[in-house]
Design goal:
This protein has two domains: 13-171, Class II aldolase/adducin N-terminal domain (L-fuculose-1-phosphate Aldolase), CATH 3.40.225; 180-252, no CATH class. The protein has seven helices and nine strands. The protein has helices spanning 59-68, 81-88, 99-104, 119-129, 149-171, 180-193, 238-252, and strands spanning 13-17, 23-25, 41-43, 74-78, 110-111, 134-137, 141-146, 227-228, 234-235. Helix 1 runs parallel beside helix 4. The radius of gyration is 19 Å and the shape is globular. 34% of the residues lie in helices and 13% in strands. The chain is an alpha+beta fold.
Length: 253
């Protein structure tokens, strides 16, 4: 992560869950580019220290993911520049622009802001962890996780690569999304191949996507991506608001 500039100084943290339930974690206030094996902290699943090293102050984020996802054995948290740019802009990485991303990662939602190293952050993440393999955290960074350390890293790398491509495509005039039919075919391919299970289908994350991805129940989300909270109010993403305002200005002209 340090060599790829996903972290600088003492940013970021990594952990692994061993078969016996112990957690290996990067230490607090340590540059990942200068870290050595003897600095690794060891805790139990509740964060209790099992050696003399102090784990990252953001260990709670990792422990939440392990509790919510028994299949996860490794977590990588970093601040990759392009992915984090989405996070500070208040945007999720959830548009179907790359078939490979749909096959191997799925959409990456944005968790609302919570103060790092506190329950505020884990509370915002908790509803999303079960259904996604990577998250953006508003005004903070990104986290990805998997069945082993390489899969967690690969997902973080895919997140950053996708964010970079999305930003570049906007410079060129905007990306062209895959159709909902194309997305459905990719979902069936990835489930048949074992890349992702039905639990990774887009659901329960507070976003109603234009792609209308199938939910595990077989039902489709509403055809619009606007989200109603049930009291008559409509919540729009930043992109949707910009689009509506642009259309209003064009119609007025």
């Amino acid at each position: 992560m340090y060599e790829r500039s996903y972290v600088v100084s003492s940013d970021g943290n990594v952990s692994v869950r061993l078969d016996d339930g112990r957690i290996l974690a990067t230490p607090t206030m340590t540059c990942k580019g200068r870290m050595t094996d003897d600095l690794i902290a060891v805790t139990d699943i509740d964060g209790k220290k099992l050696n003399e090293r102090k784990a990252s102050s953001e260990l709670a984020m990792h422990l939440l993911i392990y509790r919510e996802r028994p299949d996860v054995k490794a977590v990588c948290h970093a601040h990759p520049p392009h992915g984090t740019a989405f996070a500070v802009a208040g945007l999720a990485i959830d548009q179907p622009i790359l078939s490979e991303v749909i096959l191997t990662l799925g959409c990456v939602p944005l968790a609302s802001y919570g103060t790092p190293s506190t329950d505020e952050l884990t509370q915002q993440m908790q509803p999303l962890v079960k259904h996604h393999n990577a998250l953006l955290m508003a005004n903070h960074g990104a986290v990805a996780y998997g069945s082993d350390l390489w899969q967690a890293w690969d997902r973080l790398e895919t997140l950053e690569h996708t964010a970079k491509i999305a930003i570049l495509s906007r410079i060129l005039g905007g990306s062209k999304n895959l159709s909902s039919d194309a997305v459905e075919k990719l979902i069936h391919v990835r489930e048949k191949a074992g890349y992702l299970t039905e639990s990774a289908r887009c659901q329960a994350c507070g976003y109603l996507h234009e792609t209308q991805l199938l939910c595990p129940t077989g039902e489709r989300p509403a055809p619009t991506s606007y989200f109603s909270n049930g009291d008559g109010k409509i919540t729009l993403t930043r992109e949707e608001l910009v689009e509506l305002l642009s259309q209003a200005v064009m119609s007025k002209d």
